[in-house]
């Protein structure tokens, strides 16, 4: 079983990202069992939000919050910190929406290179480049992060992610932009793998 925590702010679509990932996992035929649910504090736009996602080849019986994740996915760098790093399993991965390279993030937060893979992608810039924003002109990054995940050790491909995005939003110009964002994120993600020696 693979356990994933999405970190974001209310209105950014962390919960939706978990739902799309779950659908992509099923589409891939590698993870027929999924579970996704949110964790809210104060329910308001801009408040910190977490979403939990479990994907597995076998039935999932656990329904509790995830304490230690295989993947921590941070959609907004302002909610990132030591509390996120502490919840990543050894040999797990951090996926961070930032303009910084993985090596700089690793140094800034003293992330052990023998324990955690660091992946960065400037999803915010991708969204602005594609004019993929909401009504308040805030960047939409929850679909592009799926492109980054297709480059991870998960057995989910970019075609699975694209089909899941279409399943969530239907076909249309906005969906096409979301798919393009996922493709660009997959191309531009920077990875600093766990050092095995």
Could you describe the 3D structure shown?
34% of the residues lie in helices and 25% in strands. The chain has 7 helices and 7 strands, in the order βαβββαβαβααααβ. The longest helix is centred in the last third of the chain and has 16 residues. The chain has a 7-stranded mixed β-sheet, sandwiched between helices. The two termini are 26 Å apart. It has 197 residues and is α/β, with parallel strands linked by helices. It has a single domain, classed as Pyruvate-ferredoxin oxidoreductase, PFOR, domain III (Pyruvate-ferredoxin Oxidoreductase, domain 3, 3-Layer(aba) Sandwich), CATH 3.40.920.10. The mean pLDDT is 93. The radius of gyration is 15 Å and the shape is globular.
What share of the residues does DSSP label as strand, in percent? 25-35%
Q: How many domains would you count in the coordinates?
A: 1
The CATH superfamily bears the name: Pyruvate-ferredoxin oxidoreductase, PFOR, domain III
| Uncertain residue ranges | none
Briefly note the CATH topology name: Pyruvate-ferredoxin Oxidoreductase, domain 3
The biggest beta sheet, please? Answer: 7 strands, mixed
Helical element count? 7
Number of DSSP-assigned strands:
7
């Amino acid at each position: 079983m693979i356990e994933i925590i999405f970190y974001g702010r209310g209105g950014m679509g962390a919960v939706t990202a978990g739902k799309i990932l779950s659908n992509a996992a099923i589409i891939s035929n590698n993870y027929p069992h999924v579970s996704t649910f949110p964790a809210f504090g104060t329910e308001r736009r801009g408040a910190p939000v977490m979403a939990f996602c479990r994907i597995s080849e076998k039935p999932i019986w656990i329904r509790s919050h995830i304490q230690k994740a295989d993947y921590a996915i941070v959609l907004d760098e302002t909610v990132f910190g030591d509390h996120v790093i502490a919840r990543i399993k050894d040999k797990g991965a951090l996926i961070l929406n930032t303009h910084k390279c993985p090596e700089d993030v690793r140094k800034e937060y003293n992330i052990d290179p023998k324990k955690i893979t660091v992946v960065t992608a400037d999803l915010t810039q991708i969204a602005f480049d594609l004019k993929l924003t909401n009504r308040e002109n805030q960047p939409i990054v929850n679909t592009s992060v799926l492109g980054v995940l297709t480059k991870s050790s998960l057995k989910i491909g970019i075609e699975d992610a694209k089909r899941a995005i279409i399943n969530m939003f239907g076909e249309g110009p906005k969906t096409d932009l979301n798919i393009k964002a996922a493709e660009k994120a997959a191309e531009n993600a920077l990875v600093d793998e766990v050092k095995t020696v």
